[in-house]
Write a structure and sequence with these properties.
The protein has 198 residues and is of the alpha+beta class. It has 2 domains: 1-50, no CATH class; 55-193, Cystine Knot Cytokines, subunit B. It contains 3 helices and 11 strands; from the N terminus they run βββαβααβββββββ. It has helices spanning 31-50, 56-69, 102-105, and strands spanning 2-7, 13-20, 24-29, 53-54, 110-116, 120-121, 124-130, 135-141, 145-151, 155-170, 177-193. The strands form 4 sheets. The chain has a 4-stranded antiparallel sheet with strand order 4-11-10-6. A 3-stranded antiparallel sheet has the order 1-2-3. The protein is elongated and about 85 Å long.
Length: 198
Amino acid sequence: MDVKQVSVADKARRWIFSVHFCTPIIIIISPRLQILILAFLAASVSACKMNRCYNESELSEAVERKLRSHYHQPPDPLPAADPDSPSSCPVELYQYLAPHEENRRSLSPWRYVLRSMKDHFPSTYSEAECLCSGCILIQDVPGKGRVPVENFSYTSVPIIQSRVFLRRDLCGDGGKYRLTPVSQDVAVGCTCARPMST
């Protein structure tokens, strides 16, 4: 294959590829088209790597590598409660909670519960669950002074963040797995908000 640079009347750069089979063929490609072709090829190679199939022994190493390099995971707050365990709005304890426990001393306190997703990596994660329907406010109560009360003029609402997980999908041959990135909305905390008007 011979590559020659030639000038054209409009002074634009063109590349001529002369390919010799039975008869010479001349293809003129502009620099912009060259860049588009290279970008397309790079995307194709990247897509092939992302859709690679792994056998069972390669899977855990591939998951760890992908989560570390492409899909960084936030640390899970500990401890996380069982989602079926009882919970209540901690109004009585509000003034006595440790200052480093942001989730407990918030106007909209929350706890972390452990969630599971089958065939996903990571397979378990912590998610915030609001403990109150209203918000804890300090108010004057006759005979008690200024005390924390749950005020239902406001609502506790979850703060949602999109998080990427790797889903394990069966490849066509049935013996290997593909790792597909999927987004999942996860509650990371709670905040106090005015109720939505209808």
